[in-house]
Write a structure and sequence with these properties.
The protein has 3 helices and 13 strands, in the order H-E-E-E-E-E-E-E-E-E-E-E-E-E-H-H. The protein is mainly beta and 171 residues long. The strands form 3 sheets. The protein has a 6-stranded antiparallel β-sheet with strand order 1-2-5-12-7-10. The protein has a 5-stranded antiparallel β-sheet with strand order 9-8-11-6-13. The longest helix has 7 residues.
């Protein structure tokens, strides 16, 4: 039985993700949408949908980032995780993914397109294994990694969170 983060990384053949943690794409639709059928924010065709496994260990975080599509998060295993999503108007949403609804956890949650979002495991010495489904499908052309300085200028009310879920500027 798989019980540790290292076991999942090996079993699921996960690789390091640019935003933190580990991932593996598990699905990419073979069909795509023509740009004329997509909102202007997309610069070309996009496949219908994509899906990944994503794993974070305590002490790791998913760096604040945004994409041009909605992203559905699915909880699979481990401890709970909080997804922090900052709306374009600055409203902060905290979504706790896990398997204990009595503790305010949910198995699925949606981060709308254009929100800045990141995540962190809630307890020490654990991990969280989730899945993420994106529609229209994920494309790195739609991926923007958060810059701490720019995010602090735009959302100063979320300074502690931005400092927690971004890397300091290189000097």
């Amino acid at each position: 039985m798989t019980t540790t983060a290292a076991d999942w990384v090996k079993t699921l053949q996960l690789s390091p993700h640019p935003e933190g943690g580990y991932f593996r794409e598990t699905y990419r639709s073979p069909e795509s949408l023509d740009p004329s059928h997509l909102p202007d924010r997309f610069g070309g065709p996009r496949c219908f949908s994509t899906a990944i496994y994503f794993l974070l260990e305590s002490g790791q975080f998913s760096t604040l980032h945004r994409i041009q599509s909605d992203e559905v998060w699915h909880f699979y295993s481990g401890g709970s995780l909080t997804v922090y999503a900052i709306a374009p108007d600055g409203e902060l949403n905290k979504i706790k993914l896990g398997n204990n609804p009595e503790a305010g956890e949910t198995w699925q949650a949606v981060v709308p397109a254009g929100y800045w979002f990141g995540a962190a495991v809630n307890a020490a010495n654990t991990y969280t294994l989730v899945g993420c489904t994106v529609a229209p499908g994920f494309d790195f052309a739609d991926f923007e990694l958060g810059d701490r300085t720019q995010l602090l200028q735009k959302f100063p009310q979320h300074q502690a969170l931005i400092e927690k879920l971004t890397h300091p500027p290189l000097s």
